[in-house]
Each structure stands twice: as structure tokens, then as C-alpha cells.
Design a protein that fits this description.
Rossmann fold, disordered C terminus, 2 domains, alpha/beta, seven-stranded parallel beta sheet, Dihydrodipicolinate Reductase, domain 2
Amino acid sequence: MSPTPAPAPEPASGSASAPAPAARIGAWFIGARGSVATTATVGALALRAGLAPAAGCVTELPELAPARLPALAGLLTGGHDIATDPLPKRAEELAAGGVLPGELARSLERELRDADRRIRPGAGPGPETQRAAARRIADDLTAFRDRHGLDRVVVVDLSSTEPPAAPAPELDSLDRLEAALDAGASPLPLSSLYAYAAFRADCPFVSFTPSPGPRPPALGELAERRQLPWAGSDGKTGETLLKTALAPMFATRALQVRSWTSVNLLGGGDGRTLADPANAASKTRTKAQGLEAILGRPVDGPMHIDYVPDLGDWKTAWDLISFEGFLGTRMSMQFTWHGCDSALAAPLVLDLVRLTARAAEAGECGPLAPLAFFFKDPAGTGRHDLAGQWDSLTAWAATALAGDARGEAAR
């Protein structure tokens, strides 16, 4: 892969760009020029400018108001990527595909150019050791936080899915990991390298992909030492969202699900990545486990993920559910889900940045189980039913986060 050119310097104060509102938190995207990150960046800018409603933003619902989350108006984006196409061009491409309005991409072009200057070269194949890469990434995060006077930076992994692999033994403990990195070894999957660097820079981490990210024990130990929260894994945006809403219906009505067949047709970069069976294995694992947890047993039925380039950034899922009722009567249900994954994922990314930043402010650390509502493979809990996850999220907002806010006010 050719080296990424050094980013242009950010505009100095007094430049032609209109000054942004004072930013209090930063959203640092791994894969910052990808479809989801670009859509999230455009969305954050549009919401700040009052150009779009907050449709899909869970954190704007009244049930989460007690948590006193940081305002979207004070959110600033940055990130890492090995891709070089600038954000305005990526926004134009997404607008051409119907992901976002073309007029919005044009009206925010100047702000997108500014945001693109805050993207730094990502880690990838090359001579750089993992120790050196981690230091460079951590330095980028620290510089971003200090330069813009941010209270906190939340790192969100939106990069391509990694294939499953047996974890290196060095990931069993932090001391062994540090020794391996000092010796020039490369034991970390790329997603875990970013998580390691984020924790070293005192940044909370959100794993929006099924990649390992912060899950190895050594990184969990590092997060505990640094008193940092993290959340994951694998954002729940489409077909799996429906499964976690529908499966409890069959379970609570004592209807025996005999098989649940799923066919997923994807375009875009995600589909291209998942066309590799090794990468797809990570995704199918997280998509299947929620159904098993809710129904209490494995369920027959194939699950396919197929790449259809013509679909672009859109995806279609078709599910066929065979179930058995009273006296063994056989019945079935089927549904088709057609949606734009980037438009579904982007508001959740903004939600997770706000919630994770607030959790860090409240002094929470380790996996944030109440954020299971957003994930296919939730860390810190085995709960998968959507309604139960929502109850946990709102209760957390009304107690742990609101309680911390009341304590601050009293002081």
C-alpha cells in the first residue's frame, strides 16, 4: 500500500472558515473517511448548524435526558485512515448513492474540508513497529484533545471487519503485552492496536465492528488501570435489530422456532470486505449469538452474507422463520429489510460518543454493559433482547449518570 501523504495543517484562527461552537468532546473515528464515519461527520455538522433533524439519535429521546449528556453542538470530529480521498469527495459519493442529501454535502463543504484536516495517517502494513505505531496514534489523540481544548476524546472503531484469529498469548496480561511490544513483536490485531493506543492516551473506546478491539484481557487490564470505560461490539443497525425485537415474541408466547434462515445482500465497502469468508465469519458469529441467547438454544437455518456491488451503500436482508404452535401446527413468518447501513449506523455512533463520554465523566470504567442496546455482541452482559436492553439503558441514565450529575450540582 502506498504511504499516506502528510495531512495539510489546519486553518489558523482568523481563516475564512466560520468558527465552530466551543467543542467539549471529540469523536475520533478509526476509518474516518469510510461511509459510516463520513455520514456521522456530515450528520454532526448538519445537526450543529440546524440543517437536519436528529432522526435516529437515541440520545435525543426524553428517556435519556436525565443523563445530562454533552451537547451535540460541542462535538468535534477527527480520526485516522489509510484512505486518501478527502471528506468532501466522500460526501459527494454518498450523496450520489442516495445516502445523504446532495444539497447538504454542498452546503457543508467548507466544514468538511476543515474536518478532513483533522484526519491523520492510519496504521497499516509497513516497517513501523506496533510500539512506534501506538505511540504515534496516542500522540495524535493527545494533540487533538489539547489543540482544541476538549474535555474528553472518545475513539470509535469504524474500520473494516477483521477475520477471527486465535489471540496471541501475549494478550493474556498487560505485562506480557508490554514486554512483547518493547521487543519489537506485533501481537495486536489492528483494532486492538488502536484500542491500546487510545487507552494509553486516556481515551475511552467504542468498538462498532466485530473485530477484537479492546476485548483481549491485557487491554481490559489497561482500561482498568487507567480507569477508562469502553463499549462494544458490532453495532446493531438492521436485520439483527429486528431479530432482537422479534425473537422475544416467540419466546414469551411459547412458540417453538424450528428454523430461522437469513440472507443478507450488501454492497459498498462493507460488502466487499465481507465477501472474504474469513472476514464474514466474524460477522455471522455476532449475528447468530443473539438469537441463540434469546431463544435459549441453537436454531437451525443458514445465514448468508453475499456481496452485490450494484447495491452500493444499501443492503437487503430476507428472513424466513419457521415455527410450531399449539398441537404441533406448523407456521411461518418472513420479512424483508432494505436500508442504508451508513444512515442507520451514523446516529448510533454519535449516541455512543455522547454516552461513553458521560460515563467517563461519571467515573465508570471497564465494559459498559448498559450500552448493550447498541450492539450485536454486547460486552459486559449476556442480555440480547431489545426491550430489556432499553430498560437497562434508561435505568442507567436515570440512576448512575443522573446521580453523578446531582452529586456534581451539590458540590
